[in-house]
Design goal:
Blueprint (H helix, E strand, L loop, with lengths): L8 H14 L3 H14 L3 H18 L9
């Protein structure tokens, strides 16, 4: 399991907007945005969109990971 880092609430907002707009292709869109940020040498936005891609993957899965209380 890859640890998921959630920096702030905006990450959830961006992830849900992508899921609402792109559906099952939301992860691909986040990856494309990360690649575009990398191409323009914007490290912060690259890291942001890579984390969004991971978050979308976690939000899409129905499996429980980690400890359940």
């Amino acid at each position: 399991m890859v640890p998921l880092f959630i920096a702030d609430r905006d990450m959830f907002a961006d992830a849900t907007l992508l899921l609402d707009h792109f559906g099952p292709r939301a992860g691909e869109e986040a990856r494309a945005r990360a690649n575009a940020a990398r191409a323009s040498d914007n490290v912060l936005r690259f890291c942001h969109w890579r984390q969004i891609e991971r978050l979308v993957g976690h939000l899409e899965t129905r499996e429980v990971e980690g400890t359940v209380h």
